[in-house]
């Protein structure tokens, strides 16, 4: 039967070709969309013929959110507050501060019939440093307005929960974003540019997309998401909320087909916590980390670049109490592998404070497991002091500098006077870089005058001779790189893999 069908098909194709040859001059080309050449086909299974019925059901639960803000501005009119305030225009200087009104627009969705509303935190936040939000208004699709109360907000996840006084309100539920796949259809409903309810459709372009923050693992979509869509829902084809539209990637501020939504699996537990009036807490180890790049893996003699390297350990925090040290390579947490998508930060942050957490790491080439009792992550303000200082290069003396041509660096002893000059803590031990060859790998990777080399390949450095020995040991082991541990100012130290010159 297979052969019979094949022969019949060949004859039919041959007949069609013969007919075309008779009607069309040899070699002539016809339009791709010649009338009758293309016939409408029914959508394949799973593809919608229309979103209309679904949107009609869902749109009433999607709301517009607006804020009224009071912005304090410095008035440059010297006659401000006098009868002559408007006589000379707004010129001059030294006037008193005045206040102006500001507004913001965004989207949200109702999650209960009694009026709990989910949106992005940035939708209801002040638009400027000197602004305060005076009121939040929720407007339903039928035009009815409610004054909303902020029940809870979480800056790190960019989520907020509001409450309006109503009953029998239309609402929607969270779905399971873990079932989402790249290529699935999605629908976004929101209020871009204050135009009113707007519906866009597209597909999921990527999952677990990293954008900016340590916990960002977005659903990426090409459904048009623009300013004002923030806080609105992303629906799957069953009408479940699988994401909260949050950000766009655009050089112009408009949609270019790259939008991001917070997955429901991340948002739902945070929303539930905020709705109860509780504060969102996250686990904390008290470490600075950086990815294990192929260069770092090569410098340490590791077979593969996996896990994350501990670059700093805060005193009297969970990691230090568990015995974790700078230079340890963390490869697993409670049986889960540390990867680019599933980082140490995410795994620990999603752990309840007080939990005893087994952490698998590699130290000096040997694999071992330590157990840490997870602490509570401090606020963003408390963590702000741990950023590496990027100020200009300090001035310091050069006498006694020793050059290492293999790394392209000149170093000298770190004296108390130099430590004060370059702004490092007096307790720091190492050698200070007095010069870096800009053509060397070290220079290309940003190592500069005033940096302090604390260790080489995890061995302490107190003199130029220690660097020479470290380079020699790496060469003996057949490696072409060394791993320098560098302190800059009062910031957290970091690891730099540096190529050894011939």
From TrEMBL:
InterPro entries named in the record: PDZ, PDZ_sf, Pept_S1C_Do, Peptidase_S1_PA, Peptidase_S1C
Signal peptide segment: 1-18
Main location group: periplasm
Catalytic activity: Acts on substrates that are at least partially unfolded. The cleavage site P1 residue is normally between a pair of hydrophobic residues, such as Val-|-Val
EC number: 3.4.21.107
Alphabetically ordered keywords of this record: Hydrolase, Periplasm, Protease, Repeat, Serine protease, Signal, Stress response
SMART domains linked: PDZ
Biological processes per GO annotation: proteolysis
Source superkingdom: Bacteria
Protein name stated in the entry: Probable periplasmic serine endoprotease DegP-like
Pfam families: PDZ, PDZ_2, Trypsin_2
Record localization: Periplasm
NCBIfam families: degP_htrA_DO (TIGR02037)
Protein family: Belongs to the peptidase S1C family.
Enzyme class: hydrolase
Ranges for domain PDZ: 271-347, 383-489
GO molecular function ontology, one term from the record: peptidase activity
């Amino acid at each position: 039967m297979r052969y019979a069908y094949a022969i019949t098909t060949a004859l039919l194709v041959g007949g069609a070709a013969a007919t075309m040859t008779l009607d069309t001059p040899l070699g002539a080309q016809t339009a791709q969309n010649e009338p009758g050449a293309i016939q409408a086909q029914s959508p394949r299974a799973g593809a919608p013929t229309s979103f209309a019925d679904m949107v009609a059901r869902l749109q009433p639960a999607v709301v517009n959110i607006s804020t009224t803000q009071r912005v304090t501005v410095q008035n440059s009119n010297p006659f401000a507050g006098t009868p002559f305030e408007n006589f000379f225009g707004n010129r001059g200087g030294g006037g008193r501060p005045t206040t102006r009104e500001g507004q913001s627009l965004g989207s949200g969705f109702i999650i209960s019939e009694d009026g709990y509303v989910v949106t992005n935190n940035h939708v209801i936040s002040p638009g400027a440093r000197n602004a305060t939000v005076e009121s939040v208004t929720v407007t339903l699709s039928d035009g009815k307005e409610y004054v909303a109360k902020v029940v809870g907000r979480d800056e790190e996840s960019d989520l907020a929960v509001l409450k309006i006084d109503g009953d029998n309100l239309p609402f929607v539920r969270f779905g399971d974003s873990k079932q989402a796949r790249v290529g699935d259809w999605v629908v976004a409903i929101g209020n871009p540019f204050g135009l009113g309810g707007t519906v866009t459709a597209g597909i999921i372009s990527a999952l677990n997309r990293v954008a900016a923050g340590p916990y960002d693992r977005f659903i990426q979509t090409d459904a048009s998401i623009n300013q004002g869509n923030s806080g609105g829902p992303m629906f799957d084809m069953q009408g479940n909320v699988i994401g909260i539209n949050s950000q766009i990637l655009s050089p112009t501020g408009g949609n270019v087909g790259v939008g991001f939504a917070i997955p429901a699996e991340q948002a739902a537990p945070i929303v539930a916590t905020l709705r109860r009036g509780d504060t969102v807490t996250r686990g904390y180890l008290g470490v600075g980390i950086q990815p294990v790049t192929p260069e770092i893996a090569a410098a340490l003699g590791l077979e593969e670049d996996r896990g994350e390297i501990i670059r700093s350990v805060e005193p009297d925090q969970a990691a230090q109490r568990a015995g974790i040290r700078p230079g340890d390579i963390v490869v697993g947490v409670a049986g889960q592998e540390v990867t680019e998508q599933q980082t140490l930060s995410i795994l620990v942050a999603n752990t309840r404070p007080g939990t005893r957490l087994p952490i698998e790491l590699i130290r000096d080439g040997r694999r071992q497991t330590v157990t840490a009792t997870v602490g509570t992550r401090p606020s963003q303000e408390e963590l702000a002091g741990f950023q590496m200082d990027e100020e200009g290069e300090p001035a310091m003396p050069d006498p006694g500098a020793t050059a290492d041509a293999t790394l392209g660096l000149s170093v000298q002893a770190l004296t108390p006077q130099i430590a004060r000059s370059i702004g490092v803590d007096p307790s720091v031990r190492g050698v200070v870089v007095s010069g870096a060859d800009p053509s060397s790998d070290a220079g290309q990777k940003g190592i500069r005058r005033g940096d302090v080399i604390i260790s080489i390949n995890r061995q302490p450095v107190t003199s130029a001779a220690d660097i020479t020995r470290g380079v020699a040991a790496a060469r003996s082991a057949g490696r072409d790189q060394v791993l320098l541990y560098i302190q800059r100012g009062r910031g957290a130290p970091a690891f730099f893999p540096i190529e050894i010159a011939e």
